[in-house]
Amino acid sequence: ARAAGRISHPGIREKAFHVLRISKDIIEENSANEGKCKGFSQFENYYIPTLRKTLENYLNMEIKGVVLSKVQEDMSAYLDSCDEAFTKLYNSMFDDDILDLEVQMEAMNITMKRDGLL
Fold first, then answer.
1. E strand or H helix at 8, and its extent?
2. Could you count the other beta carbons within 10 Å of the beta carbon of residue 4?
3. Degrees (nearest 5) of the Cα angle 36, 90, 99?
4. What angle do CA 72, 73, 74 make, to 5 degrees?
5. pTM above 0.85, yes or no
6. What is the CA radius of gyration of the chain?
7. What is the pLDDT of residues 18-27, one digit of tens each?
8. What is the Cα 32 distance to its own chain's centre?
9. Which residues, at least 6 apart from 7, have a Cβ–Cβ distance to it below 8 Å?
10. Among 1, 47, 91, 107, which one is most buried in terms of CB atoms within 10 A?
C-alpha cells in the first residue's frame, strides 16, 4: 500500500488502491471463515507478493522518470486484470451462502404453493 500511495499517476494510483481494497476484503473474509476460501493460498503466496513487487517496480520507474505511455497503459491494464480476478475470487467466497439462500427461498415457495397460498 505504501508504493501505491506514492504513485503519481492519478488513474493508476486509484486503480491500485481499488485492487488493494479488494485484497483486504478477501483477506478479512478468509479470516472470518477460518481460512476456508478456495484459492486463498495462491492469492496469499503468489498474487499479493507479485502485485506488491509490480507496484514497487512501477513506482521506481516513475521516480526515475522513465515511465512511458506504453508502460502506463500496460500497468493500467494489469491493474484492471487484477481487479477482475480478485473480484471474482471475492465473489466466489460466497457461493455456498448463495446456494443456501436459493434453497431456502425455493423450499418456502414450494411450501406456500402446497398450502394454497400461492
1. none
2. 22
3. 70
4. 90
5. no
6. 20
7. 999 999 999 9
8. 16
9. 13, 16, 55, 58, 59, 62
10. 47
